[in-house]
Amino acid sequence: MTEESVDAENAGDDEPDWQMAPDSDAEFPADDERVRVLREVAEDVYGDSSESRQLSAILYRVSDLYDPDGDTSPEEIYLNVRHIMNIKEQGGLRR
Fold first, then answer.
1. What is the residue-wise DSSP string for 32-95?
2. pLDDT tens track for 68-80
3. Could you give the CA distance from residue 55 to residue 11 in angstroms, rounded to a whole number?
């Protein structure tokens, strides 16, 4: 990989990857059963590792899509997960 291609690849690291983010106009009708199941799975996978806690948090946020009182969007979830993965890749918040 050339230095130029590495620079091009890393150029957008600080910018949200809007092309990959899902469409915010998608509708997620309220579905109490789906909310319940997603939150049960989130509780089940929650554990001692940071990965299990991150997955649990993601599942809980996804459940908010179907909760009439939830306040999130597919873009917010995607960008949040992307941010978490970037921090993880850099070695954490406290390197």
1. HHHHHHHHHHHHHH--SSHHHHHHHHHHHHHHHHH-TT----HHHHHHHHHHHHHHHHTT-S--
2. 998 888 888 888 8
3. 28
